[in-house]
Design a protein that fits this description.
With 403 residues, the protein is mostly helical. It has 2 domains: 257 residues, Rossmann fold, CATH 3.40.50; 118 residues. Helices cover 67% and strands 3% of the residues. The protein has 14 helices and 3 strands. A 3-stranded parallel sheet has the order 1-2-3. Helix 1 runs antiparallel to helix 10, helix 4 crosses helix 5 and helix 7 crosses helix 11. The termini are far apart. The relative contact order is 0.09. One of its GO terms (molecular function) is transferase activity.
Length: 403
């Protein structure tokens, strides 16, 4: 079992042990920006712990102490599922590992599950400087130093309180993240010797465990000086230099629980901030919804505009075509008018020529009748000129025929 406060090296240690041959499950939560090599947490286990905390009106980032022993009746309905889950995690595996920082504040519950399965786990307690944890949590969650230190105290002391019954055994090992990174061989030796794990792949452990696992350091982030920070720093130093004893745990636990009003107030402030943030998120979400609706409306208008533009283009093309036809019709009309004018003029000229022809015809007919009358006349004086011209004409015709 690997437990300890978030950002205290639990993932690094679990990853190294996983590389060395410890099986942490088949459905592990994947890597993330704040944990690039992975969390090595079984997804179902994390979900189960979140449900347990929710049933106790808490979350992973609730800083107020949780009296899990008095709250155990509220978690009774989860025991059967927890037993089945634990059986699944350790079934047919010579060496299984379980890692989730939430276990730190739920030790009494999981201890009952282990007892029900007649399993006695080894415990690796990961610790890290409270200020370095605060720096890392600030980078990831933007928690204040006071909030992070309060969480560090809760996870560390809840874990120690839950393990009081096995303090006199060799089943607990405290691992300081900073020291273990500086001396990984010693950390590996402590684990293999302390827990009798001689079959681990030591080189794989060392290859995984390196300085690149550090995400933040104490120097990167200022810390508050207050009762919580002072208590956390003193406890951290005690865990580094003193053996785990019941007196040490009870002394620090009593001092920690005496600060409950301050911690509860801190939770209340953060809850209020979260409510404000939630209201802001709802307001932003509403604005985004309105923006989406307006964008959708604008998109609809744009489609209508495009459609109207297409209609306009078609109408323009039709208008241009009709104007072209109109120009051709006007040209044809002008030509027709010109033809009509020419025809009218020609008709008038034809009528005039016809009238002149008729006049000449009438004159010729009149002359013919006059000549005919003269020719038929018996009066010599009257018909002599005609007979004279007739003889001349006949003579001319005769000469023409001779020629």
């Amino acid at each position: 079992m690997i437990a300890g406060m978030h950002r205290s090296g639990t993932s690094a240690l679990a990853g190294a042990l996983n590389a060395a041959g410890v099986n942490f499950g088949d459905d592990l939560i994947g890597a993330a920006k704040d944990n690039k090599k992975g969390f090595f947490e079984d997804r179902q286990l994390v979900e189960a712990n979140d449900r347990l905390l929710a049933s106790l009106m808490q979350r992973w980032d609730t800083a107020a102490p949780l009296d899990i022993e008095t709250a155990i009746p509220a978690t009774a309905r989860y025991r059967a599922d927890a037993v089945a889950l634990l059986q699944q995690l350790i079934a047919d595996r010579p060496l299984s590992g379980i890692k989730d920082p939430r276990v730190s504040i739920l030790v009494p519950f999981w201890s009952e599950i282990f007892s029900a399965l007649d399993v006695e786990p080894y415990w690796l307690l990961c610790i890290r400087s409270p200020h370095e944890v605060a720096s890392s949590l600030y980078q990831r969650n933007r928690f204040s130093s006071e909030k992070s230190v309060a969480l560090w105290l809760k996870y560390t002391l809840s874990l120690l309180e839950g393990l009081r019954s096995v303090l006199d055994t060799s089943k607990i090992l405290v691992v300081d993240f900073t020291r273990s990174l500086q001396h990984p061989e010693q950390t590996l030796r402590d684990i293999t010797v302390g827990f009798g794990l001689d079959d681990l792949d030591q080189q794989a452990f060392l290859d995984f465990y390196d300085q690149g696992l550090v995400t933040a350091s104490e120097a990167e982030y200022g810390s508050d000086v207050n009762a919580l920070a002072d208590l956390a720093q003193r406890l951290y130093q005690a865990l580094l230099s003193e053996p785990l004893t019941l007196d040490l745990i009870e002394s620090y636990s009593a001092e920690w629980r005496s600060l409950c009003p301050l911690i509860v107030h801190l939770d209340y402030e953060y809850h209020s901030l979260e409510m404000l943030e939630e209201n802001d998120r709802l307001w932003v979400a509403d604005l985004e919804r309105q923006l989406q609706e307006k964008n959708k409306y604008l998109g609809s208008l744009e489609k209508q505009v495009n459609s109207l533009a297409e209609v306009s283009n078609r109408l323009s093309a039709d208008l241009e075509s009709k104007q072209h036809v109109e120009r051709e019709l006007k040209t044809a009309l002008r030509q027709a008018q010109l033809y009509h004018e020419n025809w009218s003029l020609s008709r008038m000229e034809t009528r005039q020529a016809l009238a002149i022809a008729r006049e000449r015809e009438n004159e010729a007919r009149q002359n013919y009748l006059t000549l005919k009358a003269v020719y038929q006349s018996t009066s010599w004086k009257i018909s002599y000129p005609v007979r004279f011209f007739k003889r001349i004409i006949q003579r001319i015709r005769g000469e023409s025929n001779d020629g």
